[in-house]
Amino acid sequence: MYPFQIKDSITQKTTGLMRMQFWRDAVEDIYSDNPPHQPVATELWRAVKRHNLTKMWLMKIIDEREKNLDDRAYRNIQELEMYAKNTQSALLHLTLEMLGVRDIHADHAASHIGKAQGIVTCLRATPYHCTRRKVFLPMDICMLHGVSQEDFIRGKQEKNVRDVIYDIASQAHIHLEHARSFSKKVPVKAYPAFFCTVALDDYLYNMRKVDFNIFHPSLQKKSTLLPLYLYIRSWKKTY
Predict the structure, then answer these.
(1) CA nearest 1: which of 72, 73, 67, 59?
(2) Nearest to 122 by CA among 61, 77, 178
(3) pTM score, two decimals?
(4) How far apart are CA 28 and CA 59, in angstroms?
(5) Could you read off the pLDDT of 6-27 as tens digits, one per residue?
(6) Are residues 129 and 155 in contact, defined by beta-carbon separation less than 8 angstroms?
(7) For labelling alongside 81, which of 72, 119, 179, 237 has CA 20 to 30 A away?
(8) What b-and-e string marks burial along 33-49, b requiring 16 or more CB atoms within 10 Å of the CB?
């Protein structure tokens, strides 16, 4: 799915639109059993044939990526969640299908985990985006705490800035809790699709440790314990 994730690899919206149209046409051709002669498209066609992947999820990813090419901040947390649902959650739905899982409870979990992943991804990328004078955090939460985009670009760490991050991170935590609230109904076969929660939990925990200072250097470091946490989660058969 990497070819669909082009937000940071383009500088011109027109170029992005052309790429999105290429993949939209490619998906149509794949489901017509006539994939384009392109390595990634060929592998995607094989995956579609092997696992009977749902076309809707692929198109949702493409459509949402295209809408997101404007390079502007999300107007509110709901807009960020919708973007995450149509991209990250859609990828999880496809992963479930590749695992042979078609279950309503697993789908509900995928929806919430995908939203959490989208929110955390937005938070993690904020320091990098600020170096490019870009801020994508939901404007409604920033306005609620009287924080401007310039405050983030300047790397301010006042309480109201940290309160913005707290509110957004809390929403990710809520989605993870929702996903786990019906974990007993989710087939164990689906769990590998949801092990991304290990990294999400780790980031949110580390965020709390630095009092939601999004610019703290420790948040930009890779956690050496993630493989261990992943093993434990797998052994316990939880997500």
Answers:
(1) 59
(2) 77
(3) 0.92
(4) 9
(5) 445 455 788 888 999 999 999 9
(6) no
(7) 237
(8) eebeeeeebeebbeebe
